[in-house]
């Protein structure tokens, strides 16, 4: 059995979710190759070659793949798929963008967002906003799968010695082209890979009050998140949103402030190792998943906590 991991990377660095996807790939027990696509891949390929469990790192060096457009990536990957039984990608914006097109061109059904590998044709995945776990079995001979990174412990980033080899693909579809990228800049850790996340909800009350959340996060060296209610109210930008329709996070510590704990939000953070909730409503659902809960007014508690850290 041969497995291809389609790796997400950011220029000179692998995305941290690569280690989780490789962990999922190892559950199948076959040879694992890792694909990198883009320009100037020497540094990121060297990182990938050290990952425990990788047999080969395949690099497709071309500016056509720099922005990971689905059409360009499919033109590269679909011809390669003949040599593989299973294609895996992270269940991130990157993976969710390219795998549906790959699966459609291969005429197979994509299996999305798996959190465990029960056997080589059976998997589990969350449904209903994470309130239930579905067991999915496939009869397809070739599998295209996205992996929820929080479902698998990462493999070691060191210890491997994979060979690096160049590959090429077909011509990208000319019907689409990259126009521009507007990317938020921040000195804080990236939300999906941060060890600590401090999130605020509707209870914070305003964009001005959200500065309390940011001050606490800065003291802790944490990323800042938010519930959908806070985003919809205009308190913070939508790329801070944690939840079913936002980002999925699983930090070592998640601090939820003024967040009631709707199931859509819980779906994005309930795999965090430790959850701390601060809310003045003792009946708030967030306390049902919290390891530590504080029933208190956030406007008194958060500034005091920030001052004492």
Describe this structure in words.
- The protein has 309 residues and is an alpha/beta fold.
- The chain has 2 domains: 2-166, Rossmann fold (3-Layer(aba) Sandwich); 191-308, Rossmann fold, CATH 3.40.50.1220.
- It has helices at residues 17-26, 42-49, 70-80, 93-106, 210-220, 228-232, 263-269, 298-308; strands at residues 2-6, 9-10, 13-14, 31-38, 56-61, 86-90, 111-114, 116-119, 122-127, 132-137, 143-147, 163-166, 196-200, 223-226, 253-257, 274-279, 292-295.
- It has a 7-stranded parallel beta sheet with strand order 7-11-6-1-4-5-12, sandwiched between helices.
- Helix 3 packs across helix 4 (93-106) and helix 5 packs parallel to helix 8 (298-308).
- The relative contact order is 0.12.
- The mean pLDDT is 92.
